[in-house]
Design goal:
The longest helix is centred in the first third of the chain and has 19 residues. This protein has a four-stranded mixed beta sheet, covered by helices on one side. By secondary structure, it is of the alpha+beta class. A hairpin with a 2-residue loop joins strand 2 and strand 3.
Amino acid sequence: MSRANYLFTSESVSEGHPDKVCDRISDEVVDLFFGLGPKHGVSPKDIRVACESLATTNRVVIAGETRGPKEITPELIVEAARSAIKDIGYEQDGFHWKTASIEVLLHEQSPHIAQGVDAVGNKDEGAGDQGIMFGYACNETPELMPAPLAFSHRILRLLAEARKTGREPKLGPDAKSQVTLRYVDHKPVHATQIVVSTQHLDPDMTSADVRAVIEPYVREALPGDLITKDTIWHVNPTGAFVVGGPDGDCGLTGRKIIVDTYGGAAPHGGGAFSGKDSTKVDRSAAYAARYLAKNVVAAGLAQRCTIQLSYAIGVSDPLSVYVDLHDTGKVDESKLEALLPQIMSLKPRGIREHLQLLRPIYARTAAYGHFGRTPDVDGGFSWEKTDLVDVLKRAF
C-alpha cells in the first residue's frame, strides 16, 4: 500500500525560461511545416520534423531533420523564431527578438528512418523510434492532474498574463515556480512551501518588492485555504534577478520533461515532446496514454491511473500496454489492458487520426505543460477530451 500522508513538490517554468524558449521555437517549426505543407502540395501525413534549438546570449541555433515542401526556407524559419521570441517578450540587450543571430541547420530526414515509418504496400505506418511512453491522471484537480504541478503552472500563467497585458510592467519573461503540498489521506490539505523566482526589469527591486507584486497572483492560483499562516514563502531567494532568459542561462529543447508532464507524480518515458511530428511516438503515444488515463479516471473507474505503452522503430502495434490503478481501481487492470487498444487504435496512424495530430497545434503546448489544458476548438489539446467516458462505463 502507498503512503497516505506525505509532502510532495512539483515545479513549473515560464515561457521565458531559456529551455522553454527553445521548446517554443522547435514547435513553431513543426507548426510551420504542418501549416504550409498542404498549401504547397505536401500531405500532412508525409510531413516529418525533428527539430532541436539552442539559445544563448543573442544567438539561436536551430538544427535537426525535416521532410516537407521546399518552399519552407531558412528565412521563413528565422522569421517564425523571431516572432516567437517577440511574443514571449524578449526585447533586452542580451536577448532581443530583432537583433539575435539565428542560424538554421535543418536537413533532410534520413531515408533509413523514413523507410521504417512510411506506409508502403501492405505495410502500415511504423513508429518513428523505439521507446516507452507514460500517461497519467488523478482526481486531485478538475483537470485531473497532480495538484502541485497544476498550481505551479497556474502561478506562472497568471504572472505571464499580467506581464503581457501591462498590469505588471516590472516583471520579465523568465520565471520559475514550485509548490510543496502536504497530503493527508492522499488528499492535499495545505501548502507548506511556495517558491517563485521571477525576472524583474527594475534593478532596484528587492525580494520583498517582488513578493508584493506576485503574491496576489499566487493566492489566486491556489484554491481555498491551501495557503495558511504557516506557509513558508521563498520569493527570488538569491536576491536580484535582472539578467534572465538565454542571456543568463543557455537553453536547449527538451530539458523540462517533468514540467511538461506530471511534475514527478508519474513516470516519464525516454523522450521529450517539443520539435517532433506525430510519427515520433515519444510525443504522440504519450498524448494517447494521457488521453486514455484521463478517460479512465473521468469515468470513475479509478482515482489514479498510470498507463505505459512501448514501441519498436518501424513496427505499428505497441509491444505492450500496461495499466496501474494504484490500488484505487474499481475494475480489473488486466481487463483494461485488453480493452483500451480495442476502443482506440494505438498504432501511430490510429493515434494521429483519433487525436487529429496533423495540424499546426504544437507551439501552444511548449509552455505550462502539455497536459491538464483545455481542448481548443481547432483541435489543439485533443488528448485532454473525455469523450471515451461513456464507452468505458458501458464496458464495465
